[in-house]
Amino acid sequence: MKTFAQLARRGGRKPPARPARPGQRMPLPVAVATVTGGDRSGRKHSEFRSSPDNRQLITDSTKDESVLVAVATGVDNRAAIGAFTLVELLIVTGIVALLMALVIPAFTNIKSGGDVTNAAYTIKGVLDTARTYAKANDTYTWIGFFEEDVSQQSTNPATAGTGRIVMSIVASKDGTTVYSPSSPATIDPTKLIQVGKLTKIENAHLAGDTLFTTTPSTPTGSTFDNRPPVTYRIASPPNASPPNSRTPFQYPVGSPAPAAQYTFVKAVQFSPGGEARVDNNSDYTLQVAAEIGLRATHGTTVDTTSPNVVAIQFGGVGGNVTIYRK
């Protein structure tokens, strides 16, 4: 009786490989196939060879032409084909660096504009809160503005500087002005109550430079350059004008009078009817409108070159708040 090996040799085939011993790694059999054109009967001739040294099998029997199907060797060349050269990496890195250099200034301006805009709407919200509280409770309210050094944490007493705006709202306990309108003076802290917490805004400056003091263009419009002209404004040093309020107050308030952390010499007063007054003087006249100017800061440095500036105006009679952007 013939063995399988003899039958396989007669048929042109190799005997099956021996089974792998425990722990032995066997290579995958991979074939190289050659497909030739068909004969007159339309049948195709093919030859099949096994190679235990190869690891991938690729076949293509869809064409009539002679095709040699490539078979990968034991070395995987795909990593080498898909890799970048050092020159290509350097070129890509250079392009990315160039794009960042062009785009970063634009993002800086966008962030600066966003900071100033957010600050403007925060201040508008504080003004609206004080006016609403005064009308709802039939009393007088005051908003104090203080700018401190943003490079350090808030101190007690506070350190005046640049970069952080601090705001406080207080109200009269008994519904009166507390002081004599004919002789404005510092408001007694024992006769005031605190309305809400302190509001702090980082990276913003109460501006009052020539950009804000220059008379706006006419006709009056809705932009910064065409906003209504005003005489009174809230601004921080180094702006010498306007003068400090004649009715400053402190934070915190209460009875007995606590030690002052902040003394607000820039203040706005709202009456029970909602009228706003700034920089109260001896005859206690009502201003038509007042303004709060804002510039962005980088730390304690005011950004005087950025076009992102805002003017917040509020009417004396109606107390309406309007934001003007450049």
Overview of the molecule:
The protein is an alpha+beta fold and 326 residues long. The protein folds into two domains: 25-94, no CATH class; 115-325, no CATH class. 21% of the residues lie in helices and 26% in strands. It contains four helices and 16 strands. The protein has helices spanning 4-10, 78-82, 86-137, 210-213; strands spanning 30-35, 46-51, 67-68, 141-149, 163-172, 192-194, 199-207, 232-234, 249-251, 262-264, 266-270, 276-278, 289-298, 301-302, 309-315, 321-325. Strands 4, 5, 6, 7, 8, 11, 12, 13, 14, 15 and 16 form an eleven-stranded mixed beta sheet that branches. A three-stranded antiparallel beta sheet has the order 2-1-3, with no helix packed on it. The N and C termini lie far apart (104 Å).
Count of individual domains: 2
**With helices defined by DSSP (H or I, 4 residues minimum), what is the helix count?**
4
Share of residues in helices = 10-25%
**Shape, please?**
elongated
Number of strands: 16
Task: Give the low-confidence spans.
Answer: 30-37, 44-50, 53-75, 106-113
Radius of gyration: 41 Å
SSE order, one letter for each helix or strand:
HEEEHHEEEEHEEEEEEEEE
| Average of pLDDT | 77
Q: Give the CA-CA distance, first to last residue.
A: 104 Å
Judged by helices, strands and strand pairing, the structural class is alpha+beta
Main beta-sheet annotation: 11 strands, mixed
The fraction of residues assigned to DSSP E strands is: 25-35%
Brief overview, please?
With 326 residues, the chain is an alpha+beta fold. The protein is built from 4 helices and 16 strands.
